[in-house]
Design a protein that fits this description.
The complex is a heterodimer of chains A (105) and B (138).
Chain A: E1 2-8, H1 13-22, E2 28-35, E3 42-44, E4 47-49, E5 52-61, H2 66-77, E6 86-91, E7 94-97
Antiparallel strand pairs in A: 1-5, 1-6, 2-5, 3-4
Chain B: E1 2-8, H1 13-22, E2 29-36, H2 43-47, H3 53-58, E3 64-65, H4 67-71, E4 79-90, H5 95-106, E5 115-120, H6 133-137
Helix pairs in contact in B: 1-5
Classes of the chains: A alpha+beta (105), B alpha+beta (138).
Chain lengths: 105, 138
């Protein structure tokens, strides 16, 4: 299993989530976060924004679905401008369902 | 070392903290998150009421659509249920005990009890002293 953490534009969240749902990946956790990237924030005239709001979408999927999910996120969250975000993939060894106590995703 | 990511009901947080405390592992990070599982955020499934979906609509038992959807009055909104997300980093040999303990207090048998993910952590460093690995989380 893999944990996919996607930092995306907040305004793209709805689109990404509905696309994932349409492809059969409804389960996810989202949280609002603030951060910056390579551009060190955003300069608008004299005003400098050091940290920009993003939405973090966290989901755990089977290994074989990983590429598919990343492709969907990339397709929907892309605008082509800096600040589109990042996707991180990390390993998950075990997943438990609390309701049953079983080791299932 | 392993990182345990736990997503649980909001009202189960005090009990979970207590049980972790009793096991001698009180350190954790808590976050308020919104999420949904296979039921796509359906509150009726979440509470496992023996009620038809129309009852949910009648008593306004619908979860909150995302702010974006409300603002832009979208016809279809993704629905989320508020949850608590806990992150713990623990030694390898304690993982199964802690997972069992968490499952024991959080199990209600209804949908929406949450998930537990166990993933590997390569290194841990205590900022104050610079201790690494096991010493840092002891």
């Amino acid at each position: 299993m893999k944990m996919i953490r996607a930092f995306i534009r907040p305004e793209k969240e709805q689109e990404v989530v509905l696309a994932l749902e349409g492809s059969g990946f409804p389960s996810l956790t989202k949280m609002p976060v603030f951060g910056r990237g390579k551009q060190k924030g955003l300069q608008v005239g004299p005003v400098h924004y050091d940290e920009l709001p993003k939405t973090l979408i966290m989901m755990v999927v089977d290994d074989k679905d990983t590429d598919n999910v990343i492709a969907i996120i990339q397709d929907k969250a892309r605008t082509g401008f800096v600040g589109d975000g990042k996707v991180f993939v990390s390993p998950v060894e075990t997943a438990y369902t609390v309701r049953t106590g079983e080791k299932t995703l | 070392m392993k990182e345990i990511t736990v997503i649980i009901r909001r009202d189960k947080l005090p009990a979970t903290k207590k049980v972790l405390d009793e096991m001698g592992y009180p350190s954790l990070t808590i976050q308020s998150v919104d999420g949904r599982g296979r039921q796509k955020g359906a509150m009726c499934a979440e509470m496992d009421y023996d009620m038809p979906d129309s009852f949910c609509t009648a008593v306004k038992l619908t979860p909150t659509p995302s702010e974006y959807a409300v603002e832009h009055t979208l016809p279809k909104a993704a629905l989320y249920v508020p949850k608590r997300l806990l992150t713990l980093v623990v030694p390898d040999d304690l993982v199964s005990t802690i997972v069992k303990g968490i499952i024991k207090v959080n199990k209600t048998g209804r949908h929406g009890d949450g998930k537990i993910f166990v993933s590997p952590v390569e290194n841990a460093i205590r900022v104050r002293t610079g201790e690494q690995n096991g010493e840092a989380i002891a």
